[in-house]
């Protein structure tokens, strides 16, 4: 599984950020799962990382069933 994360901080709206997450879902790296979430002031993506990873594992279970 390859995982990518990023955080976007909107300079026009102080205190609003968006955290993005993407993960590969198969061995050939051709299927992906992504998720994003709004964050409050001064938060980085790591605050949502556990939630995003758990969602990914649930999707892997669904895809393999």
Describe the structure.
There is one protein chain. This protein is of the alpha+beta class. It has one domain (3-64). It is 29% helix and 35% strand. It has one helix and three strands. It has one helix at 46-64, and strands at 3-9, 17-24, 32-39. It has a three-stranded antiparallel beta sheet with strand order 1-2-3, with helices on one face. The radius of gyration is 13 Å and the shape is elongated. The two termini are 18 Å apart.
In short:
The chain is an alpha+beta fold.
Biggest sheet statistics: 3 strands, antiparallel
* Secondary-structure content class: alpha+beta
Low-confidence stretches: none
The helix content is 25-40%
Tally of extended strands? 3
Number of domains: 1
Q: Which value, in Å, is the CA radius of gyration?
A: 13 Å
C-alpha termini separation: 18 Å
Q: What amount of the residues lies in strands?
A: 35-45%
Largest sheet: spatial strand order: 1-2-3
How many helix segments?
A: 1
The whole-number mean of residue pLDDT values reads 84
Order of helices and strands: EEEH
The geometry reads as elongated
SSE layout:
Blueprint: E1 3-9, E2 17-24, E3 32-39, H1 46-64
Antiparallel strand pairs: 1-2, 2-3
Features:
3-stranded antiparallel beta sheet; alpha+beta
């Amino acid at each position: 599984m390859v995982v990518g994360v990023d955080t976007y901080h909107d300079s026009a709206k102080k205190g609003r950020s968006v955290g993005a997450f993407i993960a590969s879902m198969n061995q050939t790296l051709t299927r992906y799962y992504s998720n994003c979430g709004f964050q409050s002031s001064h938060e980085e993506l790591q605050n949502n990382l556990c939630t995003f990873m758990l969602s990914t594992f649930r999707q892997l279970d669904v895809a393999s069933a």
